[in-house]
Amino acid sequence: MTYVVAALAVTNALTLLNLLLLFGVIRRLREQGDTPPGGLPGPRALPVGAQIEAFTTTDTDGRPLLRNELPHGAVIGFFSPGCTPCEALLPKFVSYAERLPGGRQSALAVVVGTPEEAAGYVDRLSPAARVVVEDVTGGVVKRAFGVTGYPTVFQLDGDGRLLVSDASSVDRLAVPAV
């Protein structure tokens, strides 16, 4: 009989421990539920008015791209394959970029991922914007804009300062003159 009582005591203790751990996991999941769908809360890029540092890279067409070549009003979008908010923003970004007066020269899309992962995004973005594919661990354009979350959209003035820095929308961008 003493073995049965001991076994029940151990089982009850383990059940209580399991219950405490479960409550801890539930609390953590609720905290994560408060995180916005695009990533961690807080700034994901440089603020409006910030000067973008000079950079040189190569687009998917094999042409060099320099920061000072981006015209006034240029729109820059950062996307990551597999990102649900990026998928939702992509058609809006393409539609906006197609209406820009300077054509592809006035829009830059940076796809962060491996070339294989980025291929679908490159195909969809290339008709409307110059496209750069950068590695997840770094990249000169990503570093110049201070991007830490996706999607992120910017608009520059002619001197390389940010006119608009918005985490997930093209709605705040200046309407392109047609």
TrEMBL record:
<feature type="domain" description="Thioredoxin">
    <location>
        <begin position="46"/>
        <end position="178"/>
    </location>
</feature>
<dbReference type="InterPro" id="IPR036249">
    <property type="entry name" value="Thioredoxin-like_sf"/>
</dbReference>
<keyword id="KW-0812">Transmembrane</keyword>
<feature type="transmembrane region" description="Helical">
    <location>
        <begin position="6"/>
        <end position="26"/>
    </location>
</feature>
<dbReference type="GO" id="GO:0016853">
    <property type="term" value="F:isomerase activity"/>
</dbReference>
<dbReference type="InterPro" id="IPR013766">
    <property type="entry name" value="Thioredoxin_domain"/>
</dbReference>
<dbReference type="InterPro" id="IPR017937">
    <property type="entry name" value="Thioredoxin_CS"/>
</dbReference>
<keyword id="KW-0472">Membrane</keyword>
<keyword id="KW-1133">Transmembrane helix</keyword>
<keyword id="KW-0413">Isomerase</keyword>
<protein>
    <submittedName>
        <fullName>Thiol-disulfide isomerase-like thioredoxin</fullName>
    </submittedName>
</protein>
